[in-house]
Amino acid sequence: LSFWIIKFRHVFGQAVRNDQCYDDIRVSRVTWDSSFCAVNPKFVAIIIDASGGGAFLVLPLQKSGRIDKVYPTVCGHTGPVLDIDWCPHNDLVIASGSEDCTVMVWQIPENGLETPLSQPVVVLEGHSKRVGIVSWHPTARNVLLSAGCDNQIVIWNVGTGEAMINLEDMHPDVIFSVSWSRNGSLLCTACKDKKVRVIDPRKKRIVAEKDKAHEGARPMRAIFLADGNIFTTGFSRMSERQLALWKTDNMDEPICVQEMDSSNGVLLPFYDPDTNIVYLCGKGDSSIRYFEITDEAPFVHYLNTFSTKEPQRGMGYMPKRGLDVNKCEIARFYKLHERKCEPIIMTVPRKSDLFQDDLYPDTAGPDPALESEEWFAGKNGGPILISLKDGYVSAKSRDLKVVKTNVLESKPVTKAESISTVQKHASSQPSVKMEDKLEEVLREFKSLRDRVILQDRRIARLEEQVAKVAM
Question: Taking every annotated instance into account, which residue ranges of this chain make up the domain DUF1899 (predicted)?
Fold first, then answer.
């Protein structure tokens, strides 16, 4: 076996002490196979049960212990939240998709929430059914993908609030997963029709597809690896859980397929491109299994299983720059129980205290390689890498600015914008005041309009339910 294998034979998993867990959290019970948790170097976000709408918690990482029942939430959705994703280029910005058919993008205050946050920076409307997947572009700023139960994929320019690309006739059934390639030029999807598709979103065409990638009826998952291959999880005809590896240029036959066990939880794959390790977390399982992917048979090498007593309801996965390199930490998971979130740390024990550069090749940093306009115009860029040698120090995140194309849909002005407006108009003081007043009126207008739209939808849904009951 290769050099890598020997190195990662000894990945050691360990749950943290009780006082480092986040306790007394009502983790969402909605039936949906997303991870329910998203983490970055500043915050852990967890979808929770919320009466009369949808909400999620955003906790600063250091805020472990018991979480007060009245701790403020992010609570602008009118239906349960199904998926959340932190922006890879701004640790204060998070997107959420919900049963209310909308995607919302939020800016979290630098030190976390002190009051409930119900006003998103932008509401993205375009899906006709619930939105189960949100995923930021890995290398272009402000590009966000959403996939809904209307079987559509929409790619948004968050900076203008516009739906730029709509992939509507590609999936005849529910989309189980969507994954960006390393430079974000392609997508791979897993669909209920048992096909895995590779899609060029800007050309709106299917580049490759595999029918019956896994023969079983239960949900599949498909993710891109750094070398362009695709890793899938699914079920065999006999309902055994499987994993498989595929070449995108020829998907007729898999590079390899492995049967795992006959549990029925969907396997959520988490991938580390720096070490080429895939961690598999089954929903409802009480273990994390990990495999190393190499160019040599058997290609997907089983490394180890980390087991606990309690089953997992969901799982968050920390980006590499949020890990403690001094402890030789190569992965950190945030495991959701029914009432708590428990960090699990994966380390490769080493005798030396020096920086282990073999464990930490340069990794994707927070700077985007492209602006959204460049990506939509056809340009590509791989991730901008950083060294973790002295640990990652986060720079101050810039405010997310949304400049709507239609002035009637203008958004709350961020501080930075108001300052620059004031400077520009220092000579014409009265017009500044007028503009501020206008901004405020427009802001109120937009907030009321959004609320009316959401309430309309909610009423329609309730009427449907009443009609069903009456029948």
Answer: 5-65
DSSP H or E segment with residue 453: helix 429-470
Q: Which amino acid is at 7?
A: K
Residue 329: predicted pLDDT: 95
The type of residue at 291 is: F
Amino acid at 461: R
Alpha-carbon span 29 to 113, nearest angstrom? 23
Q: Is the pLDDT of residue 425 over 80?
A: no
User: Which amino acid does the sequence have at 223?
Assistant: I
Which pTM value belongs to this model?
0.85
CA-to-CA distance for 135 and 139, rounded, in angstroms?
12
Say how far apart CA 92 and CA 28 lie, in whole Å: 22
What is each CA distance from 266 to 238, 281, 303, 342, 364, in whole angstroms? 15, 8, 20, 20, 28
Rounded alpha-carbon distances, angstroms, from residue 342 to 16, 223, 226, 345: 7, 25, 29, 10
- Cα Rg, the chain, nearest whole Å: 23
Per-residue model confidence (pLDDT) at position 432: 58
Torsion sign over Cα 183, 185, 188, 189:
positive
* DSSP per position, 239-262: S-EEEEEEBTTB-SS-SEEEE---
Strand-pairing partners, residue 300, are: 293
Determine the Cα–Cα distance for residues 204 and 441; give it in Å rounded to an integer.
39
Cα 40 to Cα 46: distance, rounded to the nearest angstrom: 12
The secondary structure of the chain in percent helix, strand, coil, rounded to multiples of 5, reads 15, 35, 50
Spatial distance between the Cα atoms of 42 and 339, rounded to a whole number of angstroms: 22
Both structure tokens of 370: 């492209």
